[in-house]
Amino acid sequence: MTQVTGNAMRIPEGGAVREVLDRIGDKWSLLVIGTLRGGPLRFGKLEEAVAGISQRMLTLTLKHLVEDGLAGRKAYAEVPPRVEYELTELGRTLLPLVISLAEWAMAHHEEINANRTSHI
Fold it and tell me: What pTM, to 2 d.p., does this model score?
């Protein structure tokens, strides 16, 4: 159980919070979740939309999101095969958090970069 002492929150090692954050807290998962907010997308469209992601990393990220029930995968019996990915109801509950984090990053990007360069 997470404990709060004063202003500090103590998260137990190996706890559920850490396990979930390790999975969804990486940059690719957050970017894919944010990209899927508009509805289902095919793999190729996702790859185009998420700048800098490799095919391998997109494949792994989607696999993990599907395993965790945050995204769904629908395969169509067509030639060539068509597969679409979309957020599940559970995945959509993350959208307000992902959008808030992205807005915060955009609002503070210049300040963070200035801080980085002052420490070089």
Answer: 0.80
